[in-house]
Specification:
Number of strands: 10
Distance between the termini: 38 Å
Shape: globular
Largest sheet: 6 strands, mixed
Number of domains: 2
CATH class of the largest domain: Alpha Beta
Helix content: 25-40%
């Protein structure tokens, strides 16, 4: 049984068809990439999976259980956590307090004797932010705000982590460090579904890739197969030459 199964979901916003009849599965321990041009419906998929909004039709199952009737906090407590492309920590709170807040929303409810400070420190150490635990979140750089966003998601103890463009806007060195962090998270037996536009990262990290275009799923396969798929290159980038420049297609 797949960890997550999406069956024929469709989502409209007024007259706009954001997602049309999309189906896919996420297997346990997988890193699955979700790519497509801007406006393809990727973040809408995340919103549907995390309970932020509901589809007009279709079904979503997590560990075999239907979750469409659940609110976002209930989905989180089942074991699905997400990050947001535009990170919004509690800016006037300390970094460690941001993580403590997230601890109370996980699917593994905490014993009241659990030391929240100790667990928060452990999470911050894992993601490389322990030295800034007592800094205000608003003082962090972009890469550290993204790390904090991941830390808050991890604090909910997910089995499935949805990463929404955690690489975007980072320097080449920061990208390398973020890739290492994603690998560390995966080694903790956390399944990952990730949206990303940096193709070399997607190709390097993902076991499989699914591709959306105008709200429709147009391809799924191993990175090499996706990278040489003419339909994917044309839909995602507009031309084969553009695909080569961004890391899709043969050089």
């Amino acid at each position: 049984m797949a960890l997550l199964e999406v069956k024929s979901i469709t989502k409209k916003f007024g007259g706009l068809m954001a997602i049309r009849d999309v189906s896919f599965k996420v297997e346990t321990d997988q890193i699955l990439g979700l790519i497509g041009p801007n406006g393809a419906g990727k973040t809408t998929i995340f919103n549907l999976l995390s309970g932020v909004c509901r589809p007009n039709r279709g079904e979503i199952f997590y560990k075999g259980t239907p979750i469409l009737s659940l609110k976002a906090h209930q989905v989180c407590r089942l074991g699905i956590a997400r990050t947001y492309q535009i990170v919004k920590p509690f800016s006037n709170m300390k970094v460690i307090d941001n993580v403590k807040v997230a601890l109370f929303f996980g699917h593994k409810l905490k014993d009241r004797h659990t030391d929240e400070t100790e667990e928060s420190e452990s999470i911050l150490d894992f993601i490389g932010l322990s030295s800034k635990a007592n800094s205000l979140a608003k003082s962090l750089t972009l890469v550290d705000r993204k790390r904090l966003e991941i830390a808050r998601a991890l604090a909910t103890h997910p089995d499935l982590l949805l990463l929404d463009e955690v690489i975007a806007g980072l320097t080449p060195t920061e990208v390398l460090h973020m890739v290492d962090l994603i690998r560390k998270i995966h080694r903790k037996r956390i399944t990952i579904l990730m949206i990303e536009h940096v193709m070399r990262v997607i190709m390097e990290l993902c076991d499989e890739i699914i591709v959306l275009d105008h709200g429709e799923l147009i391809a799924r396969g191993a990175p090499q197969a996706i990278s040489t798929n003419p339909a994917v290159i044309n839909a995602y980038l507009g031309s084969t030459n553009a695909g080569r420049e961004r890391g899709l297609g043969k050089a």
